[in-house]
Specification:
Elements: H1 6-15, E1 26-30, H2 35-46, E2 50-52, E3 55-60, E4 63-72, E5 76-79, H3 81-87, H4 91-113, E6 125-129, H5 137-147, E7 153-160, H6 163-169, E8 175-180, H7 200-221
C-alpha cells in the first residue's frame, strides 16, 4: 500500500486508534514538521486537542540522514551509542551538532507556539505521532522527554515503520501502533506518493485550524 500524502496516512492511522476517540483525557502531539499533517487528521477523527512536541535529530556530519542521536524539548538528549562508537564520533563534534540543533529547536518552538506554553500532559494519555519511523532515534528522544512530563499513558503511532523498530518500542512506551510494517522497508518516503517537505507555514496553519475546529465544535456542543 502507498499513501497519497501525509493527510491520507493520518486518516488511515486514525482508524487504528479509534479506542481513544471522544475521550477527555487524550492529547495528540505531533513531531514537526512531517508528523503534523498526519496528527492533524488523527486529532480531528478522535476529537482530541492537537499540539506539537519539538525534537531534533542529531545527524552525523557529512551523512546527515544517519542519526547519531536526538534532542527534545525539556533538555533531553538521546545518543545512539552504536553509531557513535562505530564511527568514532568525538564528543566535541556531538556537542557542536547538538548546540546547532538546539538553536533550531528553540526557533521552531517560537514559530509554532509563539508565547503559548507547552501543553500540560500530566496524568493524560498522549498519542505521539510522526509520519513514519526508520531507526526510531527521534521518536525515542521524544518519548523519553515526554515521560519526564508524567503523562499517564504514552502511545506512539505512525503510518509506517519497519517491523523490528516497532518491536523495539514495545519495551519503551505503553503502546505502539504502526499501521504498516513492510519488509523490506528501505525508508519512510518510499511509502508515500507525495513526501514533499512540510513547511513551517503549513505547521502553523494546521495548528490554527485544529484549534479553531475544536472551539467551533465546543461552542456547538454547548
Amino acid at each position: 500500500m502507498l499513501f497519497e500524502d501525509r493527510h491520507h496516512a493520518g486518516r488511515h492511522l486514525a482508524e487504528k486508534l479509534m479506542t481513544y476517540a471522544n475521550r477527555d483525557d487524550v492529547t495528540v502531539l505531533a513531531l514537526p514538521r512531517g508528523g503534523v499533517p498526519v496528527a492533524f487528521e488523527v486529532a480531528k477523527k478522535l476529537n482530541a486537542p492537537l499540539d506539537v512536541f519539538l525534537v531534533r535529530k542529531l545527524g552525523v556530519p557529512g551523512q546527515e540522514e544517519l542519526a547519531m542521536g536526538a534532542i527534545a524539548s525539556g533538555g533531553i538528549r538521546v545518543l545512539n551509542d552504536d553509531v557513535v562508537n562505530y564511527l568514532g564520533i568525538p564528543t566535541p563534534v556531538i556537542e557542536a551538532v547538538a548546540s546547532q540543533e538546539q538553536r533550531e529547536l528553540e526557533r521552531r518552538e517560537r514559530s509554532y507556539r509563539g508565547d503559548a506554553p507547552p501543553p500540560d500532559v500530566k496524568g493524560r494519555t498522549v498519542i505521539l505521532i510522526d509520519d513514519g519511523l526508520a531507526t526510531g532515534s527521534t521518536m525515542r528522544a521524544a518519548a523519553a522527554a515526554l515521560r519526564g512530563l508524567r503523562p499517564a499513558h504514552i502511545v506512539v503511532a505512525v503510518p509506517v515503520a519497519p517491523p523490528e523498530t516497532c518491536d523495539e518500542f514495545r519495551e519503551e512506551v505503553d503502546e505502539i501502533v504502526c499501521a504498516l510494517t513492510p519488509q523490506p522497508f528501505h525508508g519512510v518516503g518510499l511509502w508515500y506518493r507525495d513526501f514533499s517537505q512540510t513547511t513551517d507555514e503549513e505547521v502553523q496553519e494546521l495548528l490554527r485550524r485544529a484549534t479553531e475546529d475544536r472551539e467551533h465544535a465546543f461552542s456547538h456542543a454547548t
